[in-house]
Design goal:
126 residues; mainly beta
Length: 126
């Protein structure tokens, strides 16, 4: 059973930096594409960022490009989302996700991800 666990969320001021972390039990993440998604109140869940299993390719939603950075530490079995220059519209529950299969191409499509964490709430005040 694969379990993904996000951490690092909280109530923060606009601007500045915050790092979200995603760890896993029941699976070594090093051979899997990983993604971050978010769901704001009253909105559908949307893609934020994704990283290839080797970490060499990354993709970002236009809304976070240049402000957020996705990275991974395959030794620590962790994936991170560095959030800089936070805005109130970044307020959402943030989820990390992984596909069922190894060595897949990095994708921004939610339907390609099979395992999801419970999410961590990020609230950005203006």
């Amino acid at each position: 059973q694969v379990q993904l666990v996000e951490s690092g969320g909280g109530f923060v001021q606009a601007g500045g930096s915050l790092r979200l972390s995603c760890g896993a039990s029941g699976r070594t993440l090093s051979s899997y594409t990983m993604g971050w998604f978010r769901q704001a109140p009253g909105k559908e869940r949307e893609f934020v960022a994704a990283i290839s299993w080797r970490g060499g390719s990354t993709y970002y939603a236009d809304s976070v490009k240049g402000r957020f950075t996705i990275s991974r530490d395959n030794v620590k079995n962790m994936v991170y989302l560095e959030m800089n220059s936070r805005k109130p519209e970044d307020t959402a529950v943030y989820y990390c996700a992984a596909p069922r299969d190894q060595y897949t191409l990095v994708t921004i499509l939610q339907r390609r991800y099979d395992y999801w964490g419970m999410g961590t709430q990020v609230t950005v005040s203006s």
